[in-house]
Every structure is written in C-alpha cells, then in structure tokens.
Amino acid sequence: KKNYRIAVLPGDGIGPEIMQEAVKVLTLVGEQEGVTFTCEEGRIGGIAIDTDGTPLPEATVTLAKQADAVLLGAVGGPKWDQNPGHLRPETGLLGIRKALGLFANIRPATMHSSLVDASSLKPEVVSGVDLIVVRELTGGIYFGEKKRYDGPNGEVAEDQCIYHEAEIERIIRVGFDIARKRQKRLVSVDKANVLESSRLWRKVAERVAADYPDVELTHQLVDSCAMQLVREPKQFDVIVTENMFGDILSDQAAMLTGSIGMLSSASLAAGSFGLYEPVHGSAPDIAGKGIANPLATILSVAMMLRLSLGMDEAAAAVENAVWSVLEAGHRTGDIAADRSKAIGTVEMGQLVRDEL
Amino acid sequence: KKNYRIAVLPGDGIGPEIMQEAVKVLTLVGEQEGVTFTCEEGRIGGIAIDTDGTPLPEATVTLAKQADAVLLGAVGGPKWDQNPGHLRPETGLLGIRKALGLFANIRPATMHSSLVDASSLKPEVVSGVDLIVVRELTGGIYFGEKKRYDGPNGEVAEDQCIYHEAEIERIIRVGFDIARKRQKRLVSVDKANVLESSRLWRKVAERVAADYPDVELTHQLVDSCAMQLVREPKQFDVIVTENMFGDILSDQAAMLTGSIGMLSSASLAAGSFGLYEPVHGSAPDIAGKGIANPLATILSVAMMLRLSLGMDEAAAAVENAVWSVLEAGHRTGDIAADRSKAIGTVEMGQLVRDEL
Ligand SMILES: CC(C)[C@H](C(=O)O)[C@@H](O)C(=O)O
Ligand SMILES: CC(C)[C@H](C(=O)O)[C@@H](O)C(=O)O
Fold first, then answer.
1. Is residue A251 part of a domain?
2. Where, by residue number, does substrate bind (chains A, B) (predicted)?
3. pTM (2 decimals)?
4. Residues A14-56: pLDDT tens digits?
5. pLDDT at residue B81 tops 90
6. Domain boundary at A195, A224, A256, which?
7. Do B108 and B236 fall into the same domain?
C-alpha cells in the first residue's frame, strides 16, 4: 500500500481551523484510493515564534524535506506585526521557500460560474476568467542583498534585484509547460523599458520560446498588465513573471474573482516536490470563530494530489466535490450573498466529504 | 500683462494632434484672463531620435528649464521599439524627469459620473471613485545602478533600488499636503515585510506624520493595495508610494475608471515648476486619424494652470467646460458607447472652447 508523508503546517489565525478540514478530506481520499497519507505537523510563523523563538524552526525544515509534499495554512497576525524582521511570521514563509527551493509559485485565478456575483467587476468581464500566474519565488529583489546605512542626508536603504539566467530560464520553462497544457498562450511580464533584470528576463524568454513553437509568447510591461487585468482579464491564459511583479499581479488577479477564499496555490521545487497553501491570509479577525472558508485549503489538497503525487483523478474528484457543494448553494460568510444563511468551516468541510 | 513661457513637447503618435487642441484651449484661457502664454515647441521621444539622434536633445532640456511649465503629449511607437536603450523614446521621458528634478508624479483617478459605464467594474463599485496616486518619480529602482555580466551559469543582471531619507521625506510631504486639502486620508504603500527600502520608507512616513496630525496615515502592503483597488477603490483618498509601485498602481487605478483617455497627470519639481501630460500613451494605431481623445491633455492644461501658474479659477473653468461637454453627451471613440456617434479630436477641442 502506497504511503505518502505530508508535512502539515497549520500556522496562525484561521490556519488550524481550515487545515483540519483539508486534512479530513485528504484522509478520506486516502481511504478511497487505498493510499496512506501520514500527516506530520510542524510549526511555522507566529506560533513558531511563540513556541520556538523563530518563525522557521530547523525541525520544520527537516520535516518538510523528508515529506513528499507540504500543506500550509496561513501565517501572521497583529501580535507579531511590530516584531523585528527576523521574528516576523513572513520571514518563516520566505525562509521555507528558499530552504526548500520552491522557485515556482503557481496561482490560478479561476472564476467559478456560481460565484460571479462576488466579483467587483461586471459579470460579462469576469465570467469565464481562467488564468494562472506563474511567479518566480526565490530570486529577484526579495532575496538580493539589503543595506541600510547613514548617508550625508540621513539614512539610506538599498535592495538589490538580481537574476541569473538559469533562474529565469527554469521559471520561464514552467510557464511554457503549463501553457502548453492549456490554451497555449503565455504572457511574460517585465519592465524591460527600465530594468536590466527585465531585459535579461525578456531575452531568456525569447530564447526558451524556440523550444515551444506550439505556444504563443507575448511580452507585456508590468504597468500595462496591471491595466489589462482590470480591463479584460479574459485575454490571459498563463502569465509568467518575476517575484515582486508576481506578488502584486497575482493578488490583483485573485481579487478579480472576488472570492479569494476559494483560491489555492502551489509553490514547486524542481521535481515533484511542492508546498500548497490557500492564497488568502490568516484572517486574525475571524480566527477561532469557526466561520472561515476551508475551500481554498481543500483545493490546495487537490493541487497537491495532482502536482506532487500524480493522483490526477483524485484531484479532480476533490475539485468536483467543491463545485457541487457550491452549485447546491452552500456558502461560507465570505462568499455568501445572504450572510444569514452562511455555514461554518466544519459544516463546509463535511459537505465536501459527503459529496466525495 | 503677465507672460508665461510654456514648453510644448508634442512627442509621437497622437501627441501632436491632442497637443494642438490643448494649446488652443490654453490660448483661449490667455485671452480671457489677460495673460500671454508663449508656447515654444521642443522635441522628445521618437521624433527626437529621428531628427536629433537622441530621445532628449539638450535643446529640449534648456527650453524646459527656461519655461514656467512643460506640456507633454506622449512618446513612443513601434518604429523605435527594437532600438537599444539609449535610443528609445522612454529614455527621453526618464531623462527629462531626472533633468528637471520632477520627483512628484500626481495621478488623479476620478470617475466622472457620466462615464461610469465605461468601467469594467460594477457601477456601484466605481461611481464616486476620486483618488490620487502620488508617485515618487526620480528615485528607486528606476535610477539605481544597473549591471549586466557573465556569471558561472550564464548572464546575470542587477538593478539596485536605492532611497535616501530626504527623497522619501519630500514625496511623503507632497502626499500629506495633498491629502490635507482633500479628505485627509493618506495611504502609504510599501513592501515593508520584505524590502529594506520599504522599511525606511515606512519609518520616514511615520516621522513626517507628526507634522500632519489632521491627516490620517495608514500603511498598506503593495500586494494588498493592488487587491483593495479592485475590491473597493472608493476607500482611497490619497495614495503615496515609491517609483516602481507607483507605476503599477497608478496605471491600475487609472484603468478602474475605464476612461484612460480622460486622465491627466502632473510631475512636479520643488517649487511650482511642473510637467503635465495625459496618462494615456501615444496610441500609434490611431495616430494621424483625427480620432484621438484630447480631453486628458486639455485637463493637463487645467492641472498646469492650477499647480504651476496659480490660476485656480481658470483651471476650474477648463475642467467645468470638459464636464459640460461630456454631460451634453459628446464622446470621442474611446469613451463612446455608440461608436457611430463618436466625434473627432478637433471637434472635441472646439466644443470645449465653445463651452469656455
Ligand atoms: C507575506 C509575504 C512575504 C508574501 C510575499 O510577498 O511573497 C505574500 O505576500 C505572498 O504573496 O505569499
Ligand atoms: C514609459 C515608462 C518608462 C514610464 C514609467 O515607467 O515611468 C511610463 O510607464 C509612465 O508611467 O510614465
């Protein structure tokens, strides 16, 4: 009987609540597919700061490295917001990305037809939106050298944005590989009219394109892309971009759908290893109330089944169960038109499992 | 009789057509107010590359420096897209910003009620949007050191993002000064959870806030701000941010209104000197056809009258003339619901002058 080791990092805020439902779904999938998922819990973010004195304990990195895949809830909260950099929850997130070599962040923004009303955009603009942002996750200005010093006129701060050709090439290839399985349209986003790193980015994208003659590659400047995402999001199939631009554009794209509580993401290393997490944050304001939407985390389980464990059918089954529950009209508060009819986290998780 | 010298830089594409209408409006204002505007033309962008071999001839910088204010059309076009960096139209734009010390870019995104339908957002989400993005324009990653070299695994490219305390302070003050005259709500946007320059930015914003106790300062991370602009743009009064984030967010904010052909911008130096230009580009596809919308350029004239020449009433008169023309139902093609009824550039300019 096949056995997969899954590192489960619930994190902070609503993290533990939503993770619980996701793990229950995973367990059920295991029973149905005759596979064992050994879920081992680790700490990351604020809870790790409180317990271990660091947002990313060594034990968590080891646990993750020994696993076949990682499921993450969410990190952060007001309690740690004033902490110095090395004691902030996000530092744990950045650290685990680097430690595990998770260079490819995959963020689908898909508008499910029954949720069109949740968007702030007109239905005719968003219905049918189905795009993926592929974001480089371990390079660029996030991980370049940082400096802070006193100059003649006060303090000076520097961040270095650095990209190596090989780093660009591998993420561009991920973009092409994904586009190839979809509508075969890849938009590479940069700021080549200003940045040297973007000029190298564009050059590498052009070179790699020769290996994908079946995929159409176009380039968009980041400012135009931010406009086009608002104006006509349906024009996009796959967007590939560097770390900082990807942070901004993927969040913008997510919000177009109006239901960020529904969106999951994958952060992949070379090979099949990956970390899976909802796009939304730790929502400290509703933590512990049992009202958080567990669907993004459940859909992250589906992404994990497909991308790290090769269990395509099980992944599709989980996704279909989620859509069926939505189509039957069940909603958590964040996506409910009528909040008085909203159901809770556990109830939503149960409905998905019933459907499965 | 008062005499102002205005440097007029029509640039490329639709630039000359729209500038012609703007200058006619300016001339009329001069007659009405008993002021002489001496408009002197200079070259910038593609036309300057073709004529002078550089996107920013020395003569243009001199002309601008001797003027009281600068009006710019738009630069760029496919003809120069493949040129090396120093021979690209945008390089002229970046160059003139730096040469004239235009550190404060002011970009209002205002939803005029008669144009609500042009937006891709729901009417209830955009009607009433009235925000200003204040973007730092001469620092950050745009002007930091750039490097390109061969590493062990192919080429490497670097961009340095650098901010001095004094640079941050002066733009933050511009943000506060503008907010003070409006709804007194300033959102400072950064990525303080990742970037050193953002941490300095936030620190300076906090310090300067002490001088503006009447203005409410809040901080937003750039990724959240990109989300919030989509979700609920009405929450914003004034946004202040660094160069790269401002490039992206101001374009996103502009597109929320759906009528980018209506939006103008100012780039200000210390004192009253400024450069005024429409937010839209050179639109090479419709250049020379006489169908471009001149209203953003005409509204740039109004911004110039107010911000550089202290002619507040004349500025308001121009703006009101534009709103009246719109309310009477006149539209250029870019903002027309029924394109068959769209009017041309010259006709639109004439209608505004008639109204004045
Ligand atoms: C928390 C933060 C450091 C992180 C990022 O900027 O990458 C987050 O915004 C994300 O997108 O996962
Ligand atoms: C043309 C380009 C260099 C410029 C910028 O990025 O500043 C433009 O996008 C703008 O916003 O004025």
1. yes
2. 97, 107, 135, 223
3. 0.96
4. 999 999 999 999 999 999 999 999 999 999 999 999 999 999 9
5. no
6. A256
7. yes
Pocket of ligand 2 (CB under 6 A): A 193-194, 223; B 90, 93-94, 247
Predicted confidence (pLDDT) at residue B259 exceeds the cutoff of 90: no
Whether the pLDDT of residue B84 is over 90: the answer is no
Pair B80, B88: CB distance under 8 Å: yes
* Residue B115, C-beta contacts closer than 8 angstroms, at least 6 positions apart: B257, B258, B259, B262, B326, B335
CATH number of residue B349's parent domain: 3.40.718.10
Within 8 A by CB and 6+ apart from A199, the residues are: A190, A192, B85, B148, B157
State which residues form the domain around B331: 1-103+269-356
Dihedral over Cα of B249, B251, B252, B256: its sign: positive
Considering the domain architecture, whether residues A265 and A216 belong to the same structural domain is answered as no
DSSP B80: G
B220 and B148 share one domain: yes
Q: Report the pLDDT value the prediction gives residue A336, as an integer from 0 to 100.
A: 87
Nearest-Cα distance to chain A for B2, in Å, is 39
Residue B194 near ligand 1, beta carbon < 6 Å: yes
**Which of the residues B24, B247, B276, B334 is marked catalytic?**
B247
In a domain, B232, yes or no: yes
Quick one: A220 and A288 in the same domain? no
A242 CB within 6 A, ligand 1: no
Per the structure block, which two tokens stand in for A197? 């790193």
Do residue A327 and residue A347 come from a single domain?
Answer: yes
Residue nearest ligand 1's atom 4 by CA = A90
Q: Whose CA is nearest to atom 2 of ligand 1?
A: A90
Question: B interface mutation test: which of A88, A97, A120, A225 has the most B CBs within 10 A?
Answer: A120
Could you tell which of A83, A94, A241 is best to mutate to test the pocket of ligand 1, judged by most ligand atoms within 8 Å of the CB? A94
Cross-chain residue pair B255–A230, CB shorter than 8 Å: yes
Q: How many other CB atoms sit within 10 Å of the CB of residue B79?
A: 14
Q: What number is the average pLDDT over the span B257-286?
A: 95
- Residue A157, chain B, CB below 8 Å: the answer is yes
**Alpha carbon of A207: minimum distance to chain B alpha carbons (Å):** 13
- Residue A62 carries which side chain, given as an amino acid letter? T
Residue B114 has pLDDT above 90, yes or no: no
